[in-house]
Structure formats: C-alpha cells, structure tokens
Amino acid sequence: MLLNYSVDCSIRFDPGRYGAGQDKSQLHAFLGWGAGRHPCLGKRFAQYEIKAICALFLTLYDYEVVDTTGKKPDPSVTVPDKNNIYQARPKDQTFYIKYTKRSEHI
C-alpha cells in the first residue's frame, strides 16, 4: 500500500531526456556502446556485423565517382585536401558515388 504519493521529478522516467534542447550540462550523457566497467556485451559482435555488411557490399557492387550529371569528373580538378593528405576531392564540386551490381561475384 502506498501511503505517501508525491511526484519527484528527479526519479520520474523521462524518455526525451536525451533529446534536442535538453540540459546542456550533460553534453555526453548518452554513450551508444556504454563505457567504463559495464560496456555493451554485444559491442564487438555488432562491430563485426557492420564490417561484414560493408565487405559484402564492396564485393557485390562496382563503385565509381561521378558528378551531378552522372559523368566521371575531370581528374585535373581533383586536388588533395590539405587537412587530410590521404583524401582527394573534386575542387568546388559536389560528387556522388555510382554503384552497379557486378555480373559475377568475387
């Protein structure tokens, strides 16, 4: 039997507590995989699944970089990004990845 009922906001369940516009003092309150002594038990399995799906897509499709019209961009406009020397991008252009299903699997 409940003798004293009071609404205590600190213990009330609030499903929107991590939503946008909430308290900014807890910027990193949500950790997707968990952290510390009790991380998510399925973290490694989920990461393996993500890698396996990516590998599957890489083997099933051919990929190429195209511009907005669907044509390959001119290689002379591709310049390295000074902040990341391992990445080249078309200068002042948007580009897309065109994928086509391979006729035979690897």
From TrEMBL:
<keyword id="KW-0408">Iron</keyword>
<keyword id="KW-0349">Heme</keyword>
<dbReference type="InterPro" id="IPR036396">
    <property type="entry name" value="Cyt_P450_sf"/>
</dbReference>
<protein>
    <submittedName>
        <fullName>Cytochrome P450 family 6 protein</fullName>
    </submittedName>
</protein>
<dbReference type="GO" id="GO:0016705">
    <property type="term" value="F:oxidoreductase activity, acting on paired donors, with incorporation or reduction of molecular oxygen"/>
</dbReference>
<comment type="similarity">
    <text>Belongs to the cytochrome P450 family.</text>
</comment>
<dbReference type="GO" id="GO:0020037">
    <property type="term" value="F:heme binding"/>
</dbReference>
<dbReference type="InterPro" id="IPR001128">
    <property type="entry name" value="Cyt_P450"/>
</dbReference>
<feature type="binding site" description="axial binding residue">
    <location>
        <position position="40"/>
    </location>
    <ligand>
        <name>heme</name>
    </ligand>
</feature>
<dbReference type="InterPro" id="IPR002403">
    <property type="entry name" value="Cyt_P450_E_grp-IV"/>
</dbReference>
<dbReference type="GO" id="GO:0004497">
    <property type="term" value="F:monooxygenase activity"/>
</dbReference>
<dbReference type="Pfam" id="PF00067">
    <property type="entry name" value="p450"/>
</dbReference>
<keyword id="KW-0479">Metal-binding</keyword>
<dbReference type="GO" id="GO:0005506">
    <property type="term" value="F:iron ion binding"/>
</dbReference>
